[in-house]
Each structure stands twice: as structure tokens, then as C-alpha cells.
Write a structure and sequence with these properties.
single chain, alpha+beta, globular
Length: 97
Amino acid sequence: MAVSVELALDGVTDALVTPVDTAPPSPATLRTLLAAPGACVPTFDGRDGHPVRTRGPYPGGRLDRYLRGAPRVPVSDPYCLVNLNDPEALRAWIGHR
């Protein structure tokens, strides 16, 4: 995954990055992240979520290391924490939307 992110962000100066197996972000979450002045991580109830925002030239390597010191931005979207790893999790998420 780290190599995929590194290749995707090569030459990109501003991006929202999320694993493929997470719930789609709400428009409000996207607006909050895009309003932040730089790289940041959304949080809900004190827990890190997705998508994350990168800003500036990506130095390569693991995304979690790049974002270790990035500001955490509180959002009101509990779905930023949802991981849809299997069909049961997907059904549960669809049922609670």
C-alpha cells in the first residue's frame, strides 16, 4: 500500500487519500478537510479517520509517518471511522445510513 500511495502522489501537491475499504466521506467532512491549511487527519470521538489530506510535495514512504505530526481536525461524521472489510460490515453500514 505504501508504494501505491507514493506512486499516486508523485508530483501531486494536494490530495485526499483513503483506503478503498472505508465508507465514503460526507460532504461536510470533505469541506472541513479542504478548508484546513495543510495536511491533516479527520477525527471523530478522538479517533483518526479517513480520508486524510496531504499538502505539499509528498516525501515518499509510509503515509502514516508523513501524517504523524499533522493536525487532527474534528468532524461530525462517525462514518469517517467505518472500515468495510467484509460483506457483513458493508451490510451493517448500508443499514445504518
